[in-house]
Design a protein that fits this description.
alpha/beta; 11 strands; globular; 15% strand; 11 helices
Chain lengths: 343, 343
């Protein structure tokens, strides 16, 4: 039993809790036999959901937590005051080593604050970025930071680039990943103050394969593997990606269903179209890890369904097996040694 | 002849100059009989292009300008040093009243700098935002600012909101347009420093129908008519919109062409699909005006084809007929009176 990866899941977080969360957790047990899920939250509703399924009971634990942090609650106060909330209790289990990872679909701010203050940051990391993979025409790219640290400084963005590179190389398996910074033009002199200051710093990093600026229109093409930006911009990118995709899909559907001729055609094109568009489905790529922490923290979508919860839990198993956090820690510390030996 | 709207067109600007620019200008003459185009740039190549068409010669003028501002040139220096460039010469015609409007597809920065320094801002406007219309599921929305003023301050964003409202009400004809600010969450306490400071200022404006924050995922749905943001964010939104749209369209096409069955289906769905997706075609909506200037300045896409040039020229006619600039000026000055009487 020593090899089980223990994932503490916030059973009360997100729009579909606890039903979809519990369902996803049970499904994860079927995917990997070295995962154990710890469902944290109000015991009664969790057990009621669990009763619907048959599963390996030895790999499920329920830990009671009486309070719930709501989606719109101001996060810093919520984490401070709701000591018996599912997020706080689950995060503490990661800190103490009772759990290897945290998965949550609830209040993003609270997950970020909890990750930073309860699980804690690796030495040398001042800000822990949220870094989701998203689909491109060529495969996947990593967007870092997409919502953890608004108004970040240039030195933070450089560390995001470093952590993102380590992630893409070790978890996704892309050798020497291409790193680009989101900008409003291709030339170095373009940009806002933050980008102009960060650009030369990135160019000087020997451990980062920095390829310069990326304009937003090139993001979906897969032009870069790691896309570095400040959190406000990253959040806009992530959500607009989703929004434009959804709106266009519904317009395609509407077009296909608009008359008899197109309805007949739709039957013929559907299988090929589905396959082609599946690449663009963000739900395939799990949740977003918060990088640079002492433990694993994965945030999944606020309206996560069982599939997202399951994928996020499995992601934690992969991260643990690949020693992702250790590699990020080693990368950050190696760079810090270089910096201090140069002083 | 007194009612002709005179549009000075930068014949040398953009990736397809002068051929597509001249073509678009000639096409515009056929759409409206009260427009005159002044093609500004190197006379010889312009006249060579003009020879390809037959058109009403009384409504075309060629003004020679020997220099060209290249796409990647640093804009401030370019405007200062290239006194005989097509952009500078054409902008000066707007300032002097020889032309009513400027249309250009070239170096965006140079158009912005030229608009601000040569054509000049309306009193009370510190920053002139670039404000394109873009397609949504419900029609069109205005994105303001999408590239003119990075690192803007809260007071600038409030004026962008005001100018955008006047534009949508008077040019697009939307009564009491809904104004939202781009944010990373729906709640007022969310956001970066700029948004947090701007939010309460917008709420207090009696002349603005402020509906609060808009998350990027809701932008394509048409949730707001005027979408206010800082230029870096606006530029990312505009370009990502285009990028995701293009990538998805090519994936749809790829899917449709992937096997015999889907190819047959494609023939059947094509007309309906085209109609449905045409709504999402940004080229239908012309160029982006630079608002708050003493004359009309419209920036069109760097790789503009004749259709974009034509649409942008026709836009200038509409703007002139509707007295857009006068209405913006009146709106800005009315608000300034309110502010000063409250002091």
């Amino acid at each position: 039993m020593q090899d089980l990866v223990k994932v503490a899941v916030d059973a009360m977080g997100g729009d579909n809790a606890p039903a979809e969360i519990v369902k996803g957790a049970v499904e994860a047990l079927g995917v990997r036999d070295n995962v154990k899920v710890i469902l944290v939250g109000q015991e009664e509703p969790i057990r009621a959901e669990l009763k619907k399924y048959s599963y390996d009971e030895a790999r499920v634990e329920v830990v009671n937590a009486t309070e719930v942090i709501e989606m719109a609650e101001p996060p810093v106060n919520a984490i401070r005051q709701k000591k018996d909330s599912s997020i706080v209790v689950a995060m503490k289990m990661v800190r103490s080593g009772e759990a290897d990872a945290f998965v949550g679909a609830g209040n993003t701010g609270a997950v970020l604050v909890g990750g930073t203050t309860i699980v804690g940051r690796v030495k040398g990391v001042e800000r822990a970025p949220l870094a989701p993979l998203f689909p491109t025409a060529k495969g996947v790219s990593l967007l870092i930071d997409c919502g953890a640290n608004v108004d970040a400084r240039p030195a933070h963005l450089v560390k995001f680039a470093r952590m993102g590179s380590i992630y893409m190389e070790n978890v996704v398996g892309i050798k020497n990943p291409r790193v680009a910074i989101v900008n409003i033009g291709a030339e170095e002199e373009k940009g806002n103050a933050l980008v102009k200051e960060t650009f030369p710093l990135l160019r000087e990093c020997k451990d980062i394969n920095f390829i310069g600026s990326i304009e937003a229109r090139d993001i979906p093409t897969g032009y870069a593997d790691v896309i570095v930006c400040e959190a406000f911009v990253g959040n806009v990118i992530l959500k607009l990606f989703e929004g434009v995709g959804n709106t266009m899909l519904s317009m395609v559907k509407e077009g296909l269903m608009s008359n008899t001729r197109s309805k007949i055609g739709a039957l013929l094109v559907q299988p090929a179209l589905k396959k082609s568009l599946k690449q663009f489905d963000t739900s395939e790529h799990g949740g977003a890890p918060l990088l640079g922490l002492k433990g694993l923290v994965v945030k999944t979508h606020g309206n996560a369904k069982a599939v997202h919860v399951r994928t996020s839990i499995i992601q934690c198993v992969t991260f643990t097996e690949q020693g992702m956090n250790e590699k990020i820690k080693a990368g950050i510390q190696a760079e810090q040694k270089v910096v201090s030996s140069n002083l």
